Write the structure tokens for this entry.
Amino acid sequence: MKRHHTMTTAIPGPPSAKNLLVRHEPAPQSTPDVHGPFGRVIDVRKDAPTSASSAWVTWLLFMVPLCIAEFRDLPECEIARVSARAADLIASHGDDAQYGGHHQRTARTAIAKGLAVLARADGGVTALGIHACVRPHAGCPGTSPTHSSPSKHEERDV
């Protein structure tokens, strides 16, 4: 249900003239074309058949929005370069990201950057227990009425 507020302003005139009533109506609000500088990144572990560990999902919920914000003003040629570099790191050191190793930090960061790049695609990306997107789209799990944000109690336990 949309609400429309109307404001009426009385403009006083000379004592002998009638007061003029001017009606101000707000412009209709359009749907935003972006979710803001950090995009929309949400936990979808409940809806996913498989997902990453709780620590992984928590880390991704923190890092992917930062990467989205970092890439926001980059030209497409630079996004392509970041994407290729992330894919190369994941292919070479993906096992370090999961099991630990010398390249664990760079591999995990490459995964977060890759998800941030994929969030720019139509419909965003859903992987490893998170959904990330930068624009509103049909079927977004973040807009469904069944999706709720964690309670304060659940946030403390993370």
About this structure: The two ends are 35 Å apart (CA to CA).
